Amino acid sequence: MHIFLEENGKTGNEVLDLSQWLTLTVLMFEQKHYAEVSAKFCKFQRPVDFDPKLAHIKHVLEELEEQIHILDISSLEPEDLQTQLDHCMASIWNVMVTALVLRTTM
Predict the structure, then answer these.
(1) What's the whole-number mean pLDDT along residues 71-83?
(2) Could you tell me the pTM of the whole model?
(3) Which domain holds residue 87?
């Protein structure tokens, strides 16, 4: 590069300026690339409160698994059906809340 510039009448100061410009360009590119990689890395790190949230979600899922028998209709009496419906609605609510927590945590 230096020989090419000398052959075309460029001075040493212009070579230094071009060298500085190339150095700054590479440095800016590397800084931008580092920032992008750092941002991606941060996305995949575990949040500080990950383990307690995971334990809570596991507990809720275990409770739901224990209550799955509620979906079995054992009686066609309106009072019994209403009780089962109330339990099912509570379980659905727990599932919705847990899904929201999962989306925001993970």
Answers:
(1) 83
(2) 0.44
(3) 47-106
